[in-house]
Amino acid sequence: MVPEPLAHGWYKPGMRASEIHKLTVVGAGQMGAGIAQVSAGAGIDVSLADISLERATQGKLGIAKQLGRLVDKGKATREAVDALLARITPCVTGTSFESADVAIEAATENRELKAKIFREIDAALRPGALLLTNTSSISVTWLAAQTKRPELVSGMHFMNPVPLMKLVEVVRGLATSPETLRTVVELVERFEKTVVTSEDRFGFIVNRMVIPLVNEACFALEEGLGSAESIDTGARLGLNHPLGPLELADLVGLDTVLAICEVFLRDFGDAKYRPPTTLRNLVAAGWLGRKTGRGFYVYDAQGQKVGPSLERWASR
Questions:
Q1: Is 21 marked active-site?
Q2: Whether residue 169 lies in the annotated active site
Q3: Residue 136 is a catalytic residue
Q4: Nearest residue to 35 via CA among 145, 180, 163
Q5: Which residue range forms the structural domain that includes residue 269?
């Protein structure tokens, strides 16, 4: 059943994904830049927004660098890459909302920050535009309640790295309309990704499973059960995972992993989600994984793993 129009008069049946021509990504970090890349690759004009033009521009330069490697390897043409990059415009947050058909929030996994950004986007977006979040753990229903368009809000949780990973979780908040859900699913398919839909429960599907695995791997490392490489090799070869849990945590970003753990612990109240001391210490040291060159492992300038971060984590 189609919902009745809301009192503020903004509700109307959702557009089809094929009608989406302009999209704003809020947050030009690792995830936001990846979302901008796949959106532009689908033929959509993208505004890549951040708190400063410099940060937004750095996000686009990172995309250009990654795509340049594909050109060097013969996996993409320079013409195709240039055309994709031409569809991405760096900008300051707030300057591109009025013309956007869709805004996707991809800020740090912080509840208060996301709520603030959601309120700002909601106030600036035109009526009928969709407001999506890439959150990996925070309630979509709660974020939607910060806006005057909760029926037009949905989760669109990409996996990292966005251009390579095929899965996107589409999360249905309590107020998400059927039309919004349909459009978001179609948009993911337009990105040539595989969709799974999830109800709005903390962590959704993927992180609900993977965070306890990462936590247990970290506790095993703390206890000296095995080296970092032994733990990750066990997961890769014994469980047929493409990455071990500690390698995965470094890829995601240890600050993000810690933030998700803290959300889970607070909202579930279950000790299995408690963050290990080692994880807290790595974040406190600023060793956040690949993006800083050091986490559970040390990485070179190309992001390749070169060895364990600490001698006591080396193979024994």
A1: no
A2: yes
A3: yes
A4: 163
A5: 207-305
| Number of alpha carbons in the 13 Å side-chain half-sphere of residue 263 | 22
Q: Could you say which of 109, 169, 179, 229 is catalytic?
A: 169
Same domain, 65 and 186: yes
Last residue of a domain, one of 148, 176, 199: 199
- How many domains is the chain built from? 2
Is residue 130 domain-shared with residue 39, that is, in the same domain?
yes
- Going residue by residue through the chain (316 aa), what tens digit of pLDDT does each one get? 333 433 333 334 567 888 999 999 999 999 999 999 999 999 999 999 999 999 999 999 999 999 999 999 999 999 999 999 999 999 999 888 999 999 999 999 899 999 999 999 999 999 999 999 999 989 999 999 999 999 999 999 999 999 999 999 999 999 999 999 999 999 999 999 999 999 999 889 999 999 999 999 999 999 999 999 999 999 999 999 999 999 999 999 999 999 999 989 998 898 889 999 999 999 999 999 999 999 999 999 888 999 999 988 987 6
Catalytic residue among 136, 137, 154, 177: 136
Catalytic residue among 39, 154, 207, 215: 207
The reply to whether 222 belongs to the active site is no
